[in-house]
Amino acid sequence: NPQPIALLTGAAGQLGRVLAQRLSACGWQLRMTDIRPFPDALPRGARFFEMSLEDKDAVIDAAAGCDLILHYGGISTEQSFEEILGPNYRGTFHIYEAARRHRARVVFPSSVHVVGLYDRSETLDQDCVLRPDGYYGLSKAYGEMLARVYWEKHAVESVVVRIGSTLPEPTDRRFLSTWLSHDDFIALMQCCAQAEHVGFTVIWGASDNSRSFWRDDGRVRIGWRPKDSSDGFIDQVEGIVTQDVIAESLQGGRFVTVDYTRDG
Ligand code: 15L
Ligand 1 center to residue 2 CA distance, Å? Predict the structure, then answer.
């Protein structure tokens, strides 16, 4: 298969930088955007546009000629509703309008924080009721629904990836459940690009961790099989926990505790 021409938003962010480097090395042609300057050397064949996701025309122009949009831009931590509104709500709407215009497939990185209020003892299926743990998780739930509307009304394909925690290694007890290794993450993006049809597919973005909170998703459909597992890190990090009872008992971890006012 020829390598895709892809638009990568949020290219200067934590995951954007990993994707920029590794996907370019695999021969992808990347158009990259971010509201901040790109901090690294520009990968071979890539172009970078410093722009806001709130600028609809700029988003539509940046996506022209792309087969795929990897939408990693926006706010990725728990913040006030006002801070999240522009980048995550308006910005993601602009991405879907661009995808509709240019007939591009979208990878929408959703998050563990769409189900952050479930207890860690529960194992979730892809069609579980979402229980976002704050304004950030709520914006990801909106993105998932936007993906569904654009598939059902406009045949824009999406892979919604509910990413756990993409880190070089798991560094605390919760990450033993949520860890997605960089290699599994890159392989997943390649499957999202190469699968013939994805329609509207939901994936739990975690490696093959025996302590996973999740099961049952669309991975067979897109041909993804994680190869890594957090299991080899259990002895090393199991004792590393937060001192907060709420954070430690729920899937969302620390994000849940931001502005948490329920008592009991
Ligand atoms: C997320 O959605 C965040 O973007 C990321 O920074 C991590 O904190 C991750 O979830 C997590 O909760 O581990």
Answer: 32
